[in-house]
Amino acid sequence: MPINETLSQYSDWSFESSFTIYVLAFVLLIAQYASVKASAVHSKELVGSGAPIATATGPGRIADAPKPPLSERLAGMGYALLILALVLHVAAVILRGFATHRFPLGNMYEFVTMATAAATLTSIVLLRKRAMRPMLVFVLAPIIILMFLAATKLYADAAPVVPALRSYWLPIHVTIVSVGSGILLVSGVASLLFLLRIKQPAGEEKSTALGRFAAKLPDAQSLDRLAYKTTIIAFPLFGAGVILGAIWAEAAWGRFWGWDPKETMSFITWVIYAAYLHARATSGWRNTRAAWINVGGFVTMLFNLFIINMVVSGLHSYAGLN
Fold first, then answer.
1. Whole-structure pTM value
2. What is the mean pLDDT of residues 256-274?
3. Is 171 exposed, middle or buried (0-12, 13-18, 19+ CB in 10 A)?
4. What confidence tens digit (pLDDT) does each residue in 177-195 have?
5. pLDDT of 150 strictly over 50
6. Which domain holds residue 270?
7. Which pLDDT belongs to residue 139?
8. pLDDT of 283-305, one tens digit each?
9. How far apart are CA 103 and CA 266, in angstroms?
10. Domain presence at residue 322
11. Which residue among 59, 61, 147, 284 is buried most deeply as judged by most CB within 10 Å?
12. DSSP code of 287?
């Protein structure tokens, strides 16, 4: 069937609109992160100085509600914009599918679009609590970078997929891998922030500029739990994606495994995340050592996505790049 150019254009506009709103949310969240200390200090000064608080002064009177700190208002606006951007982001994926009359995961542009949508949804769900919202800005930064690369270097016009990808395995295998990759992005950022947070000894967070910066993050234990929780979700998804990819390879190429560069790096990535989960449950490894392994898995996943797809030639060379 011919490509629906109108829906393809709507998909591109949805993607561009979501990207713009992500950037606006990012600006608000940066402002929120910068204002956390000032708001906290201001609140303490009011309490410490005995500043009067509005109370009921008569029958039927209701005390004036205290105005939320600036940081909370900025965080709320940024979070609301994230939800709006995600709606447009998902619309871009769906419209691309209708425009091409296929599942929209046939090239790197579409894969990154799906993976970043999964990362955003994971962030919205798991970082909705006030104590965790300062982390949103650090998750949003790589999402924006990946979307920028998708819209520029990785962009591919709406078109039918190559014959090798015309299989019912495409929506199964690639969706699982892309969603798992998006969740692992959140896990990798959480471990990086955990390593930054744990380096600041208790009581000394404000002695240096880096310490003051890190003190605004969620506590190290919460970051470590988030990294572990997201990996527990994504690890079986990623593993299932590798296994299903092997089954597809047997149907398409007549063998389950051929040590193609993409297959090899996917397996290495899966092994590193398995090592992280093992280290996380092992005494003496569950803090910084396990976090570094998780960061290593995240770097390997990015290497597999960009270098293997764009530089190394193999049977999985379906990036859709000119």
1. 0.84
2. 85
3. middle
4. 999 999 999 999 999 999 9
5. yes
6. 167-313
7. 95
8. 777 788 999 999 999 999 988 88
9. 22
10. no
11. 147
12. T
Per-residue confidence at 252, pLDDT binned at 50, 70, 90? low
DSSP helix/strand/coil, 52: coil
Structural domain count, the chain: 2
Q: At what angle do helices 70-100 and 108-126 cross, to 10 degrees?
A: 150
- 128 and 209 fall within a common domain: no
Of 108, 132, 160, the last residue of a domain is 160
Q: Is 261 part of a structural domain of the chain?
A: yes
Q: Which residue has the tokens 């046939």?
A: 106
CB 78, CB 144: distance < 8 Å: no
* 3-state helix, strand and coil shares in percent for the chain, rounded to the nearest 5: 70, 0, 30
Same domain assignment for residues 138 and 233: no
Whether residues 45 and 152 share a domain: the answer is: yes
| One domain, residues 147 and 1 | yes
pLDDT on residue 106:
85
Q: Are residue 263 and residue 174 in the same domain, yes or no?
A: yes
Cβ count within 10 A of residue 75: 24
